[in-house]
Amino acid sequence: MMQIVHDVAPGANLDFYTAFVSEQDFAAGILALANAGCRVICDDILYFAEPFYQTGVVGKAIQTVEQEGVIFLTSSNNSDSLGYQAAWNPIQTATVGSTVLRDTQNFGNGSPTQTVTVGASQNVPNATFVVQWNQPYGAVKSNLEVVVFLNNVVVATVTGNGSDPYIIFTLPQGNTYTIAVQNLSGPDPGLIKEVCISPAMPVTINGANSGTVQGHEISPYALAVGAVNAANTPGLDGTRSRAKTSRRPGQGRNSGSITMGRPFPVGRSFIIRLQSPASTTSTPPSQTSTPFSAPRLRRQA
């Protein structure tokens, strides 16, 4: 990333701080870079456990430096609209195969399960999913459990850590699963959200109705940068092209949008102009690369 920045702005001073140690160290790095004099900070990192429904430690650090005059840019996470969000709507008792579920989410029409298909991929063996509910980190009240079925037989059960309102699980490629989410103990949550964070393989979620942008990516103090397919950019004949927007968790309106700047011919380089807080379009990385002969990206006046 620093090489790209140097290519675009060779006169800029560059500093680096890794974001791979932990969320806490990630946040400390943001503060350290700002204290070192950095006025523009950029990352392309996502921690799967970052909050959907509250500001996490990274988001708080971004807010701090932005209010000091720093511009913060982040990757908006190219995972398409593979999210499901709904109010908790429990079925008191349901049976799937030989498994009895209690206080389990109604995914629509009285169904205690949701169908998820994970297609084949040569890039990664599993698709990663995150389930969160709207309770505070460090003081979770509900003990939710994800139950994964294959042909009505339980193949996995995953619960939270007892402190924070999230569950992370993976599904191997090449299968169609059904998923249940039940509340083992405590009060029912108000909202539940499930996202797939695996842009490298085809995934379908029955009832998907939400985007996947999460954590510090949805901070109103950050600019989240997305990408569109370089070979499929309608509106480049002189008109502006609006990219798909995602919804922030718990909100019923679009959180922002990404629009094209000065148009280039289809398949050529283009500039993405952001509106804060920006949201995302999702495209596999191989489709966002421009042709080798394309002109170099230039600043827009």
Q: For the largest beta sheet, what order do the strands appear in spatially? A: 9-8-11-6-13
- SSE series: HHEHEEEEEEEEEEEEEEEH
Number of domains: 2
Radius of gyration: 21 Å
Largest sheet: 5 strands, antiparallel
Quaternary state, please? single chain
Number of strands: 16
- Report the span from N to C terminus: 23 Å
Number of helices: 4
The outline comes out as: globular
Strand content: 25-35%
The portion of residues assigned to helices is 10-25%
Which stretches of 5+ consecutive residues score pLDDT under 50?
238-301
**Class of secondary structure makeup:** mainly beta
Compute the average pLDDT: 79
What is shown here, in short?
By secondary structure, the chain is mainly beta. It has helices spanning 2-8, 23-35, 57-66, 285-288, and strands at residues 40-43, 71-75, 83-87, 90-96, 99-105, 114-118, 126-133, 143-150, 153-159, 166-172, 175-185, 191-196, 203-205, 223-225, 258-260, 272-274.
